[in-house]
Structures are given as C-alpha cells and as structure tokens.
Amino acid sequence: MTAIDAEGAGPAPRYKPASRFSITGFGFYVYLLSDAILFSALFATYAVLHGAVAGGPPSSEVFSLTTVALETGCLLTSSFICGLGMQAAEHRSKIGVLAMLVAVFALGATFLGLEITEFGRMVHDGAGPDRSAFLSSFFALVGAHGAHITVGLIWIVVLLAHLLKMDLSESFQRRLFCFSLFWHVLDIVWIAIFTFVYLLGIQP
User: Fold this and answer.
1) Sign of the torsion formed by the C-alpha atoms of 118, 120, 125 and 129
2) Could you report the per-residue pLDDT of 81-119, keeping only the tens digit for each?
C-alpha cells in the first residue's frame, strides 16, 4: 500500500535530504566554475594581445623552457601525491594524509619560488608587465595562477593545523576534498598555460 502522511493528504515524500558533504561539494563546484570563467577571460585576453609587443621582446625571447619544465614537474607531482593523500584519508591514515600535505606544500612552494624567480629575471631584463600589452596579459594570466597557488599553500597550513588538532574528522574530510578539487583544477590550468603560452610562445 502507498504510504500516507499523518494528514492523509497524499503519499509521503520518498527523498532524503542531501548530506552536508554533498552540499559542500556542490557549492565548491560552483566556485570552481566561476574560477574557470576568470581564467577563460585571461586566456582570451592573452590570445588577443600576444602579438602586441610594442617593439619589446616577443615571447620567444623571454621564456625559459628549462624553468617552466621544472615548474611543471613540481605541479604534476604534487597533484599525483594529492590523489594519494585522498586515498590515505579514505583509509583513515592520519600519517598518510599528513605526509601528503607536507609533500604537496613543499612542491607547491618550490613551484611558486621558481615562478617568482622567473618573473624577477624577466623584469630585470626589461620584460616587465609595463613593457607591452603582450607582457601585461602574460603577467596577469600566469600571476593569477600563482596567486591561486599561494592561496592553496595557505590552505594546506590550515589543514595541517586542523589535522593535528582534530584528527580525521568529518569536517576535515570535507575540507580536504575541496582542497583536492582546487589543487587539481590549478594543475589543469597550468597544463593549459604550459601548452598554449610557453610551448607555442617559444616558437620564433
């Protein structure tokens, strides 16, 4: 027989309210979509202004693929380790998650250090963001990605403090899941930057 509610007005609802984990995940996906719009606009701006060097150095003269290759290796490795950390969290391994966060922080900080060093070299060589529209769009795009990496590193410090204080709680699992999504998206954005900005830009 069909279930009838207390008022006898009709069938009782058969749905279950969404879990807090699902609600948090959905909200964070919406945020990531807004970030995708931001980076799409920056990529489009770079594509339009790539040739606007205004007599300054073109991309083939200012990019260093050696440094960029090292940055890419650091970020790809950190993304892989982040995935392993999520597996460790699923198996309730506090040591595994702790090791993952420390390793990802170290690789992310190395990536950021290499990027800042590269920016400093370019500015020293007269290829700063004020030199041409091309360089302005380049620094805006790559700098925005670097700013997100900085936020990710701060997030890792917060997660480490949470983990040491509260162990693998439900709230920590939600935050770790959101961080993992955030970090993997940054990895994807960097692959696009590496391909469309550096690999194509190094061609004379």
Assistant:
1) positive
2) 998 988 888 888 888 889 999 999 999 999 999 999 999
Q: How far is CA 152 from the centre of its chain?
A: 7
Overall residue count recorded for the chain in this entry: 204
Which pLDDT does position 10 carry in this prediction? 52
Tokens describing residue 155: 């997030």
Nearest to 158 by CA among 141, 144, 142, 175: 175
pLDDT on residue 39 = 92
The Cα 83–Cα 55 span in angstroms is 45
pLDDT for residue 7 is more than 60: no
Predicted local distance difference test score (pLDDT) of residue 65: 85
**Residue listed under structure tokens 């959905």:** 26
Residue 87 CA from chain centroid, whole number:
19
pLDDT at 17: 59
Stated as kind and residue range, the H or E segment containing 29 is helix 20-49
Please check whether residue 129 is in contact with residue 136, taking contact to mean a CB–CB distance below 8 angstroms: yes
Written as one letter, the residue type at 18 is A
Under 8 Å between Cβ of 181 and 154: no
Q: Mind giving me the DSSP string for 79-128? A: HHHHHHHHHHHHTT-HHHHHHHHHHHHHHHHHHHHHHHHHHHHHHHTT--
Tokens of 64: 């260093």
